[in-house]
Amino acid sequence: MGFIQLLSVASFPVIKVLLVTAIGLFLALDDISILGEDSRKKVNQLVFYVFNPSLVGSNLAKTITFESIVQLWFMPLNILCTFILGSALGWILIKMTRPPKHMEGLILGCCSAGNLGNLLIVIIPAICKESGNPFGDSDVCYQYGMAYAALSMAIGAVFIWSYVYNIMRISSSRIQKEDNTGNGINILKASAEASESRTDNFSETLNPTKDATDDAYTLLLPHAKPEEKVSISRKIKHHLGVISSNLNFKAMFAPSTLGAIAGFIIGVISPMRNFIIGSSAPLHVVEESVFMLGDAAVPTLTLIMGANLLKGLKGSTTPVWTVVGIVAVRYIFLPLLGVAVVKGAIHFSLVHSDALYQFVLLLQYALPPAMNIGTIAQLFGAGESECSVIMLWTYILAAVAVTLWSTFFMWLVL
């Protein structure tokens, strides 16, 4: 296929996403208020608890078998690479631009976590349904493309709520701790100065600033315990306990992840698969009902995505170079690194020869930040308005960036 034809195939799905996103943004306007804040929360809960699990579980159950699991083993590793490489680039961006402290966790989250679920679930089926798509028969492309996208959504959710969640949690707690420490020092300094004014001769023997600082640390930090020898096994056990206590297991095993687990079980266990999947299966009505619910996920997700961008239009004090840096990371440097990773995996025969599968692996490096980052920012109250501005610009520019990278990736794998 020629470049113009590939560009046409890649651009139409993104244009469809933009049109539905614009409708969601319009419905969220104050004068319309169909998708106001309260409405969005309720619809989001419906998507989170019903539509997404149905979509993920139904597509995985229909396409995943034990043989295909062996072939798809590289996808979790590839998604982990997107997070690690994105975090490294985000760290470099923080060192170069020196943003406000409360934005550091947000920047790392936006650079490391892409929209591995919602956007893939919209783009991949749209490409497969385009006439003249480069991946063969539309029905087969759709079936396998949805399985790849559903698997990406499930794995991405686990990484976001274990990795990014804890990065942003640690960052926000550190800022709060520094603020509390600063406030404590200021209070103690004021107290020391008042004491000094009452007893001038007392100041000759004490350093108020040093004493106040020492007192603040004594009050705010736990008392140091005398060092004692601890075995390596106890240290490892202690660190594992700290990590496990800080992981948000409830969020990691979100309904989408549970839907993926159910889909895997049904797909891999042949008796269950034959009992539920297929037009001749005794419980095929269950499969069709779940598919019907899953079909509602894509348009609803896209409408909510557009409505959530409204905050970004209302303005914020987000540093311009920080936004520019995140856009450069997500749409220039990370996709280039992704090409190197995936082509290297293909060279060493770690990835099978399915062009659609390779395309999905590459596309995972060229997506805008995950919408869940906004939820996490809201949860910790750190950088909510800045997050809205970042989301607004990254999703506006996604129209061009994702289209161009999709075109290049299709040319690369064919």
Automatic annotation (TrEMBL):
**What functional role does this protein have?**
Involved in cellular auxin homeostasis by regulating auxin metabolism. Regulates intracellular auxin accumulation at the endoplasmic reticulum and thus auxin availability for nuclear auxin signaling.
Give the protein name, as stated in the record: Protein PIN-LIKES 3
The family annotation for this protein states: Belongs to the auxin efflux carrier (TC 2.A.69.2) family.
* Protein localization: Endoplasmic reticulum membrane
Keyword Cell membrane attached: no
Manganese as a keyword of this entry, yes or no, is no
Pfam families per record: Mem_trans (PF03547)
One biological process term from GO is: auxin-activated signaling pathway
One GO term describing the cellular component: endoplasmic reticulum membrane
Query: From which domain of life does this come?
Result: Eukaryota
What is its membrane topology? Multi-pass membrane protein
Q: Name one GO molecular function term.
A: transmembrane transporter activity
Q: Which UniProt keywords apply?
A: Auxin signaling pathway, Endoplasmic reticulum, Membrane, Transmembrane, Transmembrane helix, Transport
Q: Which positions, given as ranges, span the membrane?
A: 12-34, 72-94, 106-127, 147-168, 251-270, 331-350, 356-380, 392-413
